[in-house]
Specification:
Blueprint: H1 3-24, H2 31-41, H3 45-63, E1 78-83, H4 96-108, E2 112-115, H5 132-150, E3 157-160, H6 164-167, H7 173-183, E4 189-193, E5 196-200, H8 203-207, H9 213-232, E6 237-241, H10 262-274, E7 279-282, E8 289-293, E9 296-300, E10 314-321, E11 324-331
Parallel strand pairs: 1-2, 2-3, 5-6, 6-7, 7-9
Antiparallel strand pairs: 1-10, 4-5, 8-9, 10-11
Bound molecules: zinc ion (ZN).
Length: 345
Amino acid sequence: MSPRIKACLDVVRFRSLSSRHYEHGSVSDSPQNSFCQMQQHHPMGVMSTLTLVLLSQAILISLVPCSPSFGEVADAPYFYIVAADPQLLFNQKDDRNWRTTVDHINRLRPDFVIVCGDLIQAPNDAAQWENPKNLEAYDKLAAMYNAGAKQIDPKIKLYNVAGNHDVSLAPTPKTLAWYESRFGVKPWYRFEHNNALFVVLESNLIRNPSGAPDEATAQKRFIDESVSLAKSQRYAHRTAYMHHPLCLQAVDEADGYFNIPRAQRLDLIAQFKDAGFEAVFCGHYHRNAYVKTDNIELITTSSCGAPLGKDPLGFRIVKVYSDRLEHEYIPFERMPEKIELNSER
Ligand SMILES: [Zn+2]
């Protein structure tokens, strides 16, 4: 039995014992017998039925805080930034938009930044990584991205997420190793901040594990572990991040270039829901999109490098309060001087 369930049951047991003690003047070893005796002999037999009803309600109330949707109250409100698809140099002559992104980050001073993949514009085809001349070009793009990232105040941590243009649409051990060595981060990992859990996944492997089946299995294990962890700890918030959107319009939409295939999508959503995740943040679409299913939001953020729809260049601000997350995509052209945090709804 997990310590948390045991703690809950202990609370229930303590309340039951306390109530019985109050009703009977002493605690019996055999509550069922004492209840029968009380029904037969106690002049307050009717009251004892009422007591049991109240006790059963106390049990329900005691169990509610054990649900993964509820957690400890976090520290003071804070905010972080979710950006997506700087994708150097897709539809861009230089790294100007990435530099602008970094300038806004340094001015606004979030607790941290997560970039939801396609950091650069390498090809979708993993075979291209076999050509040393191509690798030179990808190295240059990675160096350009890292040069901008280096300008971010070291107090503001940057968390990278891998996209299809960083590891290909069917990653191989080689493309995954290249990504890890160039961007200094594993393709999947998790971190905690102010008693909240953040899980980062590599969505190309979820869509197509054929080029790196062992790595795909390892990530699957990691997802299962992260879900177990999310369920067993009293986190204030639980969120996940990956490049491909789970879906763009509806949970049961058809499979396509821009989403996670239905089978894997439904499995992941079920796992996240079960573990009390509030949101999954993604990129790849170069437009904003939102789907809500039960208590979980599936949020796609437009590009800070090369948008393809009506949403201009920008990124998403995520405000974290003890009882909720609030998020908004803000275009660079109307980025405020300062992010206001207000715990009142
Ligand atoms: Zn992409």
